């Protein structure tokens, strides 16, 4: 697609939707969560014994959500970077390089920005937001379980997301399993470990975005307007 003058290119890969398929080595799972505490569950989920060392891509439906989660997770001391179309081209390249080099173990991304990425080390994909197009789901989860490797895809499901999940399961021809990890109760861990700290850090992250502060301490007015899920 031709670029308009002055427009920065976005990472895009055109794929024949008829050829889309779920890798045979991919395990698909879902976690039912209250939408009012998605960030709390995400924080706890990333720190479970089975997930704490995994290389992860978190997918969001909006650039504003991706930017917000990047701020929040960084303040919660996760090694995280982001990839979305609102970032300058140079920053997208640098962020992706950090992720490839394992300087960051978590990449928060949107669909268009991350489509076509081939990073074999990715072992977990999290659908923080459920895509409305099942083909987008296939693109997302295809970022793991590549070249015959095993991988996991976990979808966060709220009360109003059931129809979207059913549409995805129909499209891929496989049902999602309920996620579980031995000895782990996410709700208990949220209440015990994350409720207060994540709520406080959320306010700090939103303030950073509002004030347009960059990680290095420089001030720059942000063009991103945060919009809740």
Automatic annotation (TrEMBL):
What GO molecular function annotations does the UniProt record carry, in alphabetical order? ATP binding; hydrolase activity; RNA helicase activity
Keyword Nucleotide-binding attached: yes
Alphabetical list of InterPro entries matching this protein = DEAD_box_RNA_helicase, Helicase_C-like, P-loop_NTPase
Keyword annotations of the record: ATP-binding, Helicase, Hydrolase, Nucleotide-binding
Q: Which CDD domains match?
A: SF2_C_DEAD (cd18787)
Q: Which GO terms describe its cellular component?
A: cytosol
Instruction: Show where the Helicase C-terminal domain sits.
Output: 25-192
Name it: Helicase C-terminal domain-containing protein
């Amino acid at each position: 697609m031709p670029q308009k003058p002055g427009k920065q290119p976005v990472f895009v890969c055109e794929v024949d939707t008829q050829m889309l398929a779920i890798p045979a080595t991919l395990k698909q799972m879902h976690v039912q969560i209250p939408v009012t505490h998605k960030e709390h569950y995400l924080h706890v989920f990333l720190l479970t014994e089975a997930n704490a060392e995994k290389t992860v891509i978190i997918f969001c439906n909006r650039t504003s959500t991706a930017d917000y989660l990047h701020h929040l997770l960084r303040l919660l001391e996760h090694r995280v970077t982001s990839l979305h179309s609102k970032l300058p081209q140079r920053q997208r390249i640098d962020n992706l390089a950090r992720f490839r080099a394992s300087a960051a173990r978590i990449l928060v991304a949107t669909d268009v920005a991350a489509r076509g990425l081939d990073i074999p080390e990715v072992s977990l994909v999290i659908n923080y937001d459920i895509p409305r197009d099942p083909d987008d789901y296939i693109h997302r989860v295809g970022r793991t379980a590549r070249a015959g490797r095993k991988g996991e895809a976990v979808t966060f499901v709220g009360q109003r997301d059931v129809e979207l999940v059913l549409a995805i399961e129909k499209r891929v021809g496989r049902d999602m399993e309920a996620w579980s990890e031995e000895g782990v109760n996410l709700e208990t861990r949220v209440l015990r470990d994350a409720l207060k700290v994540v709520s406080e850090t959320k306010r700090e992250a939103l303030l950073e975005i509002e004030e347009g502060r960059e990680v290095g301490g420089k001030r720059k007015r942000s063009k991103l307007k945060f919009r809740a899920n």
